[in-house]
């Protein structure tokens, strides 16, 4: 039985702009082409993102949470 109070919608990754160095490492590993650089910072397209979270694992700056 599913409990309404026990269910939480998964939160998609987001970029901490102050930590992003614009290296593009996250872009290389995103299989869904959901990440682009805008003004030297990573931006995640929430419509394309499938929440695989690979970008979090490959961000050397720990800028994606």
TrEMBL record:
PROSITE patterns: 4FE4S_FER_2. Residues 11-40, 41-65 form the 4Fe-4S ferredoxin-type domain. InterPro entries: 4Fe4S_Fe-S-bd (IPR017896). Pfam families: Fer4_7. This is Ferredoxin 2. The lineage of its organism: Bacteria, Bacillati, Bacillota, Clostridia, Eubacteriales.
